[in-house]
Design a protein that fits this description.
The protein has 10 helices and 17 strands. The protein is of the alpha/beta class. The strands form 3 sheets. Strands 3, 4, 5, 8, 9, 16 and 17 form a 7-stranded mixed β-sheet that branches. Strands 12-11-10-13-14-15 form a 6-stranded parallel β-sheet, sandwiched between helices. The chain has a 4-stranded antiparallel β-sheet with strand order 1-2-6-7, with no helix packed on it. Helix 8 links the parallel strand 14 and strand 15. Helix 3 packs across helix 4. The protein is globular, with a radius of gyration of 21 Å. The model has no long low-confidence stretch (mean pLDDT 97). The protein binds dephospho coenzyme A (COD) and zinc ion (2 copies). One zinc ion binds next to helix 2.
């Protein structure tokens, strides 16, 4: 491409600090060795973008380019990149897969130790940045940075996907969808005929419910305090919906009674430590499994009676639905194209980059499932 090897000037949303986000012109340097430069075509606004922007995450370096759920096309590649080429369709990976660390080598783990979640160094693998704005260095975000027309990614943080994939529709596979869906099919390994309960019917909870359905669950109970979420949940396959506000006893007791002793699988997709305990308590003794998907504020802790585990329940959790990202994202895209599941219900709003602040408002007010910015 004509731009290969050159600095690209483009538009990006810069987070200057907590609650300070504006669209600016930036410079994006060419990719160095084992990096690729990607033109982003669609990117969703997701929970951890909001956590950083609203200041919930305190050890964060500004200014930075947020965004981690996206789809795009490779513009150019750096030296030593052999498996990716300009024109390839890709999804950035906020949990990378280096293939070399102990977690990557362990078939049961997807938590590549090169991940930047929690540490937030905000730099490329070589310790430098590819972004500048108004002469200032700009940090990246968990290996991705997608609220920009162009980004630069380490090779370990890119999945090449099908040439025919519709990039405008599949960005939720970069985070929210795969997180919820994988929690069901991959982390819990939901079995056909089972009974599941999903706490929280936002994009992640709905995706967990889609996973339960694809895995053949016969009963999928949705729990949410906002009844506006029930219709969409039923449309995607949730069989019953309950609001804890309508119950005269704790939700875990209601669920235990409704299911004759407890559910096979429960998913906490809210990020509330009290609900996490309820999600464990409502699983059936002897074989129930509870999966923690929600991200709670780091100061919040939970405690429970260890007898809940001694009596044969399992408590699990994983990032990104437990998927080994580089290996599995292309397969998830292929499954989408084979119509194994639908993503259209998850995207409720579409906006241009200039209206990104509006997108964050929709997320905060609980009005959107997912807002996707299209370039
Ligand atoms: N009881 C029942 N329902 C509740 C309660 C409650 N006490 N409180 C809130 N809810 C409902 C809300 O009404 C809403 O419908 C739903 O819970 C939460 O949905 P959203 O839309 O706010 O959030 P999602 O679906 O986008 O999910 C985000 C999580 C809240 C699960 C968040 O913790 C997350 O993203 N977790 C994944 C962690 C992760 O992997 N992060 C990395 C990148 S984001
Ligand atoms: Zn996310
Ligand atoms: Zn690794």
């Amino acid at each position: 491409m004509a731009t290969a090897g050159k600095v690209i000037k483009c538009k990006a949303a810069i987070a200057w600090g907590p609650n300070k986000l504006s669209v600016e012109e930036i410079e994006v340097a060419p990719p160095k060795a084992h990096e690729v430069r990607v033109k982003i075509l669609a990117t969703g606004i997701c929970r951890s973008d909001d956590h950083v922007l609203s200041g919930v995450i305190s050890n964060f370096q500004f200014p930075a380019i947020l965004g981690h759920e996206a789809a795009g096309v490779i513009e150019s590649v750096g030296e030593g990149v052999t498996k990716l080429k300009p024109g390839d369709k890709v999804i950035p990976l906020f949990v990378p897969q280096c293939g070399k660390c102990v977690c990557c080598k362990n078939p049961d783990s997807n938590l590549c130790l090169k991940n930047d979640i929690g540490r937030y160094a905000g730099l490329m693998a070589d310790g430098t940045s590819r972004f500048t704005c108004k002469g200032q260095k700009v940090y990246n975000f968990i290996h991705t940075s997608t609220f920009t027309e162009y980004t630069v990614l380490d090779e370990i943080a890119v999945a090449k996907i099908d040439d025919d994939a519709p990039l405008d529709k599949i960005s939720p596979i970069g985070c929210g969808f795969s997180t919820g869906y994988g929690s069901a099919v991959n982390v819990a390994k939901v079995k056909p005929g089972s009974t599941c309960v999903v706490f929280g019917l936002g994009g992640v909870g709905l995706s967990a419910a889609i996973g339960c359905k694809v895995a053949g669950a016969s009963r999928i109970i949705g729990v949410d305090i906002n009844k506006d979420k029930f219709q969409k949940a039923k449309d995607i396959g949730v069989t019953e919906c309950i609001s804890p506000k309508d119950c005269d006893k704790p939700i875990q007791e209601v669920l235990t009674e409704m299911t004759g002793g407890g559910v096979d699988y429960s998913f906490e997709c809210i990020g509330n430590v009290d609900i996490m305990v309820a999600a464990l308590q409502c699983t059936h003794p002897g074989f129930g499994t509870c999966v923690i998907v929600g991200l709670a504020p780091s100061t919040h802790k939970f405690s429970f009676d260890p007898m809940l585990l001694l009596t044969g329940r399992t408590l699990k959790g994983a990032l990104f639905g437990g998927w080994k990202s580089k290996d599995c994202v292309p397969k998830i895209v292929s499954d989408y194209m084979a119509k194994k599941f639908d993503l259209s219900e998850l995207v409720t709003h579409t906006l241009p980059l200039d209206k990104i602040n509006e997108g964050f408002e929709l997320l905060k007010d609980g009005k959107s499932i997912r807002t996707v910015l299209k370039f």
